[in-house]
Design goal:
The protein is built from nine helices and no strands. With 195 residues, the chain is mainly α.
Length: 195
Amino acid sequence: MTTWIVLRAAGIGAYVALFLSVAWGLVATTSVVTRRVSKPTSTLFHRFISTVSVVLLGVHIGGVLLDRWMVFTLPDLLLPLRASYRPVAIAAGILAMYGTVIVLVSSWVKRWTSTRFWRALHVLAVPAFTLSLVHGLFAGTDSAQPWMWPIYAFTGSVTLFLVLVRTLTYGYRPERAPAPARVRQTVEQPTLASR
């Protein structure tokens, strides 16, 4: 029973963290955020919440493998359309998992890749979120709970709105907020070696 509770909580947590990551990624390039939050702070939050999403996803998958109520094998959770339980919804979750991991890993290795390649991979974040929404709706046992529907409706509609805003403002890059004062002081103060 504990495994069942943990895997469900981790699945919902991974979904919410993925939503926050995608939403922040879409909002972070607008003037609403860039005039108030420096790029390093914005990037740090974005990477942290993305990592939380993947860690919770790992807990969710581990819980599914350990749970004895409905038996899944590792290939069931890695190969789309192999699971016997709601194969299309499970496949959506598997594809969402791959998309999320690709986007996160591409961010970790961003300094060694071109910006164009990184951006091309980063576009997978929105389809990954959409697939995770489909997975949750049609495979999640908590989808029948009345409290889960408002979460899906809110996260789905906010993401759709932000995608539309981002699409309509494509190419517009507002000026970023300056780095926090303590960072500027550290950079501006000469070191003893340079005196």
